[in-house]
């Protein structure tokens, strides 16, 4: 894929995600899908947690970091 195709694809995706509405419309969306209102930190934590969490000796081991990061054994919470 060349750079122009990537730019075109990016623009199409941005247009697909574009939303306009009232605050009441936004609140109705949140009622149906509460994850829409999550903070970035919460989204990242949920992504990490979705890979699996195992508890060993009272400490959480996050499978997300199983092989990608070496030397970080203790979870920082």
TrEMBL record:
InterPro entries: Prk_AAA. Residues 22-77 form the PrkA AAA domain. It comes from the Bacteria. This is Protein prkA. It comes from Lysinibacillus xylanilyticus. The lineage of its organism: Bacteria, Bacillati, Bacillota, Bacilli, Bacillales.
């Amino acid at each position: 894929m060349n750079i122009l195709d990537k730019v075109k694809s990016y623009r199409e995706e941005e247009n697909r995600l574009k939303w306009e509405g009232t605050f009441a419309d936004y609140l109705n969306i949140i009622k149906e899908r509460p994850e829409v209102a999550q903070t970035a930190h919460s989204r990242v934590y949920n992504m990490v947690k979705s890979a699996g969490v195992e508890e060993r000796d009272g400490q959480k081991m996050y499978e997300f970091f199983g092989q990608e990061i070496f030397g970080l054994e203790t979870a920082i919470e």
